[in-house]
Amino acid sequence: MFTFQRVDVQGGWAGTVFGILWRNGHNYLRIDGHCRYFAYQLGRNDRIVTGSLTGAEAIALANETKYSTWPDLNGLVATGGWFDAPTQVLNDGTNELFCRQNCRDSPQEPDVESALLLDSMFDPADVWRDRLLSEGTPVGGDVRFAVAIQNKIIHAGTYLEWPLSTPIKDYATDPTVTPEDENYVEVRATLARGADAAALRLMREQAVATAISGSQTEGWITVDGPGDRFYEVVVSDVLPYEDEDGIVPRHTRE
């Protein structure tokens, strides 16, 4: 049984309309114990792809990432010098290894040796993730989405139309309102199924296709709403082993 997770846990924007749907990681490769994989990379079409490894591929990935050594290294942590960088995690369902604050590119004493060891595992895992992102099939089924009122221009792409029958304002939160304000509403993710999920995926594809090269477009969609109001929308595919809140357990060994 081969359970494998290589995940980047979001650094900045956690808890915002952007971060709320990246709680499971904004770059990852997950293998579920039956050679079925799920791969995702923020900004790469913003969709999850899936497929199955052959037995030979699973063995090669395990060998290249030193998988058999993970039990002896369980809990290993190396810290770098980039304070708000994502935490990178390797997990086999029981054991976890951590690279914090970009330890691979900016290792700091006394963790330089550990950072180099972790890099030797993360690097081949990243190669496999990128390969499988190209080979996998986009997942179908449900999606989760979050909406925020846009109070400043942060997107240079095309403003799209809202595709659902329920007005977009009914889902929106205002990111400028703090928890101390009586009008504060916590950013929330909404589950969409069936035709609504398909419509949101199509909108996401349109956003990727019309994004202006070099603009800050990763992960969110800008929507033209009623009354000269604009919105930021994030759409995330649902993984089959998420809990009811949309969270993937840190340990998923079956």
Describe the structure.
- This protein has 2 domains: 3-138, Mago nashi protein; 143-237, no CATH class.
- Strands 5-7-6-1-2-3-4-8 form an 8-stranded mixed sheet. Strands 9, 10, 11, 12, 13 and 14 form a 6-stranded mixed sheet that branches.
- It has 4 helices and 14 strands.
- By secondary structure, it is of the alpha+beta class.
- The chain starts with a strand and ends in a 17-residue tail after the last strand.
- Strand 2 and strand 3 (36-41) form a beta hairpin.
- The chain has helices at 55-64, 70-73, 112-135, 194-210, and strands spanning 3-9, 27-32, 36-41, 49-52, 77-79, 87-91, 96-100, 137-138, 143-149, 160-161, 172-173, 190-192, 221-224, 230-237.
Q: Main traits of this protein?
A:
single chain; 254 residues; alpha+beta; Mago nashi protein; 2 domains; globular
Question: Strands, helices and their partners?
Answer:
Layout: E1 3-9, E2 27-32, E3 36-41, E4 49-52, H1 55-64, H2 70-73, E5 77-79, E6 87-91, E7 96-100, H3 112-135, E8 137-138, E9 143-149, E10 160-161, E11 172-173, E12 190-192, H4 194-210, E13 221-224, E14 230-237
How does the overall form come out from the CA principal axes? globular
Mean pLDDT: 84
List segments where confidence is low: pLDDT < 50 over at least 5 consecutive residues: none
Q: What portion of residues is helical?
A: 10-25%
How do the SSEs run, as a string of H and E? EEEEHHEEEHEEEEEHEE
The total of beta strands comes to 14
The CATH topology assignment of the largest domain is Mago nashi protein
The CATH architecture of the largest domain comes to 2-Layer Sandwich
The DSSP helix count reads: 4
- Structural class by helix and strand composition: alpha+beta
> Which value, in Å, is the CA radius of gyration?
19 Å
How far apart are the termini?
A: 9 Å
Number of domains: 2
Largest sheet: 8 strands, mixed
User: In percent, how much strand structure appears in the residues?
Assistant: 25-35%
Q: Strand order of the main beta sheet, please?
A: 5-7-6-1-2-3-4-8
Give the CATH level 1 class of the largest domain.
Answer: Alpha Beta
